[in-house]
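Below: protein 1.
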Amino acid sequence: MIFDCDGVLADTERDGHRVAFNATFEHVGVDLHWSEADYATKLQIAGGKERMASVLTPEFVAENHLPTDPGAQAEMIADWHRYKTARYTQMVADGALPPRPGITRIITAAQDAGWQLAVASTSAEPSVRAILTQAVGPRRAEAFDAVLAGDVVPAKKPAPDIYQLALERLGADRSRTLVIEDSRNGLLAATAAGLRCVLTVNGYTRDEPNDEAVLVVTSLGDPGGETTLVLANRGQARPDAFVTLADLRNCLE
């Protein structure tokens, strides 16, 4: 099983990454603040550095007295992104971004059952490892078979590259591998790699097209906690109040 990070392991985008981006813009002294609506648009761009670079129009560069040379701009964006990653990682360490319902339970059950597990994310690796550790603790996070993040592949989602790399690293059979994603970009990346995909949507992604997903739910849910609402089911799983490991296995049938 291969997990995306942001929006899957934790609901990180609105109150995590967006906040850290805005703190970075304030820190470097540029006149920019992303509202929730602004950030919904930026989420269509995979990768934090790429989202930052998307603001570098000639007008924005001139107004904020930024470098015009492409090389200098790339170095500047890398600096901004390092600061942003540090701010975000501190937020995770402070417990500001708890795991989504069902994540700790499913990862624990899957590891105990001998499943190979990986994370495949376009976020920076320190951010991903921080979220994973917050969700399942250091021992289980370190037991993951692969954590692929950031610029580990040149083409980011919706390109399938990161999932193809995950398959290679795991030595996994496509027909026996399931992806857990939250967005259309991730869904397209997974299915382009020939993988079945379960979507656990959030407020930013609930209304995106999902025809390629085998199962679409509001969350994995937890006994005694948030319950699962099934939005679409095109497979053999029959989840009730929460999604079980058996349900996810049935998504491969």
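Below: protein 2.
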Amino acid sequence: MDEEHYLNEPEAQEGFHFIQKKGDLFSTPETESLAHCISEDCRMGKGIAVIFKKKFAGIEDLKRQDKKPGEVAVLKRGQRFVYYLITKAKANDKPTYDTLKSSLKEMKRHCKQNNVTHLSIPRIGCGLDGLDWDEVSVILCEIFSDMNLILTVYAL
């Protein structure tokens, strides 16, 4: 979908919209929730996690939530939720598709409970974590297809 389609459609039609675009994830409006993958130890020392850590802080808040792989930790920042998908135990581990799916399902529950209709993400699990984007994109569409949600995936 192109930029114009994105700008004209979201509020006009309900349902699930999966949009992939080039750009900066952090340029999204502050009303859009964000998500990315981290380890249970909340290290966030490499990749896009470093930017999340600097921009949203809250490491101690995340640790206090005591989430395990397959769960999701959440920070509220202004009008948005920032979701931290816990997909592995330690920073140097690799996630599995099962822990990713489980974390995404937990995030979906939170999104539904809190009326989140705009969620922006990087290609989760596919950078340093090494999961396959073709498979992850199918998982995302399967999990969120029954929601009224605009899911925008940003790639540089």
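Residues 15-155 form a domain with the Leucine Aminopeptidase, subunit E; domain 1 fold (CATH 3.40.220.10).
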